[in-house]
Write a structure and sequence with these properties.
By secondary structure, this protein is α/β, with parallel strands linked by helices. The strands form four sheets. A six-stranded mixed sheet has the order 1-5-6-7-13-10. A three-stranded antiparallel sheet has the order 2-4-3, with no helix packed on it. Strand 11 and strand 12 form a beta hairpin. InterPro entries: 2EXR. Pfam families: 2EXR. This is 2EXR domain-containing protein.
């Protein structure tokens, strides 16, 4: 059956704009995955007059942002784009940014711990754990930072093999509501090349290129919730070689093993029920990268 509407261009412009407007979402953005990096932590760290200034760190001191999926109306025609632009101006939490590494525009908003899940990959796990220690000048800021985490997402490898460390995290993340365990494909961080200022005494060498994490990462959303009897894959990438290792088994087997470890792990009383099981839900999920961007 033909799905085209050939008479659409002949409709009055007011009607066409109204139709375009109704293609736009009433709720601009639901929850997504925010990939943890130092931008988030720096927002809780205080500075005082006389503190040394580290330009590379100061450049990161900005609200952490997530990419928002752009409505289709942005890509159809000039008329639809004009309606979409007007819609965007009315969304208080959204803004448009130019992404230098892709030479394209994207819509972004600030990371929201109430609806977004903070994903900590294996490459950032040690840095994440290190935030529980460190030489914090303001311990209240440190506690406030940890209490802000409501939804935590982890690779299945971490959720399975690092339960003892995760139990320690739960002592700090007192408002944690969900632990999302990601199976199969994992979120990938986009890297960009930047130039580092020469150190004192190295001015003759000039600026040096280095790899850095992109300011705004591609969007990854939860795509499905595997059934307990599904076969799933646990992915792990060697941080030194980049080689990827894969283990495959029924989800039920993995969950049974993890339940057993949690039952024998010492936890604060507030974290367990009458049967000694962890109260915080562990939600098994799969994720996918979503777009798009427009130029």
């Amino acid at each position: 059956m033909d799905q085209t509407f050939d008479l659409f261009p002949k409709l009055p412009s007011e009607i066409r704009r109204l139709i375009w407007y109704h293609t736009l979402p009433e709720e601009p953005d639901k929850g997504t995955i925010y990939q943890f990096d130092l931008r988030w932590a720096l927002g809780f760290m205080t500075t005082q007059p006389g503190d040394p200034v580290v330009p590379e760190l100061e450049a990161l001191r900005a609200p952490p942002l997530v990419q928002v999926t752009m409505p289709t109306a942005f890509f159809v025609c000039r008329e639809a784009r004009a309606v979409a632009d007007l819609w965007l101006k009315r969304q208080k939490e959204l803004s448009i940014r130019f992404r230098e590494e892709t030479q394209g525009h994207i819509i972004v908003r600030e990371y929201d711990p109430e609806r977004d899940a903070m994903y900590v990959g294996r490459d950032m796990w040690d840095e994440f754990l290190g935030l529980m220690e460190g030489d914090w000048r303001d311990r209240n800021s440190q506690r406030r930072m940890w209490k802000s985490i409501k939804n935590l997402a982890l690779p299945a490898f971490t959720a399975y093999y690092s339960i003892s460390n995760l139990a320690f995290v739960l002592r700090w993340a007192k408002n944690l509501q969900n632990i999302y365990v990601i199976w199969d494909k994992l979120p990938k961080k986009r890297q960009v090349t930047r130039m580092r200022r020469p150190e004192p005494g190295e001015e003759d060498a000039g600026p040096q290129p280095f790899k850095a994490t992109a300011d705004i990462q591609p969007r990854w959303d939860i795509s499905s919730y595997p059934d307990i009897d599904d076969t799933v894959r646990m992915l792990h990438e060697d941080p030194d070689t980049g080689r990827e290792f894969v283990e495959e088994a029924d989800l039920e087997e993995w969950v049974f093993d993890m339940d057993g470890v949690w039952m024998t792990t010492e936890l604060e009383p507030r974290l367990v029920d009458d049967e000694g099981e962890l109260k915080i839900p562990r939600v098994n999920v799969k994720v996918r990268e979503v777009g798009p961007e427009f130029k």
